[in-house]
Amino acid sequence: MEGPHHRNSQPSGATRRTALGLLVGAPLLAACSGIQQSLSQFSSNPEGGPAGPQQQPQAVGTGQVKIGLILPLSASGNAGLAAQSMRNAAEMALAEFQNPNIQLLIKDDGGSPQGASQGAQQALSEGAEIILGPLFAGSVPAVAQLTRPRGTSVIAFSTDSSVAGHGVYLLSFLPESDINRIVDYSSGIGKRSFAAMVPDNAYGNVVEAAFKQAVGRKNGRVVAFEKYGADRATPARTVAQALGQADALLIADDGDSVVATADALTAAGANLRNIQLLGTGLWDNPRVFASPVLQGGLYAAPDPSGFRSFAGRYRTKFGGEPVRTATLAYDAVALMAALARTQGAQRFAPETLTNPSGFAGIDGLFRFRSDGTNERGLAVMKVASGGSTPVAGSPKSFGA
To answer: Which intervals of the chain are annotated as region Disordered (predicted)?
Structure first.
């Protein structure tokens, strides 16, 4: 999964339209973001602990258009905490949208594929026109098995692109978006030769494919690419020896691991101050900001101001901090309300969901691709000791 991202302050009484920046003319309507390193969306319930008592189904709102929302509300550990925060955010979106004509059918899947299947079946039998969720990649196919024969779309919150497609769209921050943005920006400032170190896991595999494709599109070259497991020292030595031929180095991992990898490279003799360091949204982490050797590194992420505004309104309403994934549920519900209002009988049709103009939400611009993945308009942030500063803003519209 992943973990960081944000955005600009508005008064807590901001209207739904203002808070989401709905661009109805296009129909850019609403949207989304966010992912959190504490949850691994490449698996099922990653904690693996016993789930709590299943929460009872709940219907929120009085609108005519019914929307299923499937979350691991009773799952153990961080999964359950994230799900509760996402449910709060979904209800907050409903409250902030003026006179929404939707009703949320909230189902607890307990963090399991079986639970997700049961929740989807209940929602569909109650008249749900589209399903939001589930959170975990392992549960998405169980829901899709029920929705595809009906021609019902799913907007899931997983970051695993392998579960997208055939009516399943992902509303999350995909590693591919981060990589494409940071490579494009780096090429634009003259970087042509790239090295990289990534973890030897599912996230690293996705990053590897996206990175090599993105560098190739920009006619750049990859002079070194190494994966690491528990041992960072050996791959670090290989990369360190090649850095004389590179002018940019990608380290794609979560905050603690990025710092450990940078330390391993330094121990192997690399002078990281002489090369442009690159990262993904997972760099949005205090450990990264506090690392002396990572200062000046660039990473792709949403403009931080959107999440700050959202979090302020969330604190006012619920008296606590939202998890980073909460904006996923908020924007998904806001998008459903906007489409239900403006798109008539075609509100959740594939042609509507894949509108090339995209949607504008808390974390900036995004659009669904026909293959179920998404493209995002991300900012480029620069690591500084007090946090990060934007060096390139988020785009205001998508190109062709």
So the answer is: 40-60
Judge whether 329 lies within some domain: yes
At 327 the pLDDT is 92
Q: Quote the CA–CA distance of 199 and 194 in Å, as a whole number.
A: 17
Q: Are strands 153-156 and 130-132 parallel, antiparallel or unpaired?
A: parallel
Close Cβ partners of 291 (under 8 Å, ≥ 6 residues apart): 258, 259, 262, 383
* Cα angle, residue 338 at apex, residues 334 and 344 outer, rounded to 5°: 145
Burial letters 189-211, b for 16+ CB under 10 A, else e = eebebbbbbbbeebbbebbbebb
Closest alpha carbon to 376 in 162, 217, 181, 204: 181
Report which of 202, 46, 39, 161 is spatially closest to residue 112, judged by C-alpha positions. Answer: 46
> Which tokens go with 17?
């339209």
Residue 207 lies in a domain: yes
Contact 224, 242 (CB under 8 A): yes
**What residues of the chain score a pLDDT lower than 70?**
1-51, 400
Does one domain contain both 216 and 198? Answer: yes
Determine if the peptide bond prior to 134 is cis (ω within 30°): yes
User: For the segment 306-363, what is each residue's pLDDT rounded down to a tens digit?
Assistant: 999 999 999 999 999 999 889 989 999 999 999 999 999 999 999 999 999 999 889 9
User: Pairing between strand 379-384 and 387-392?
Assistant: antiparallel
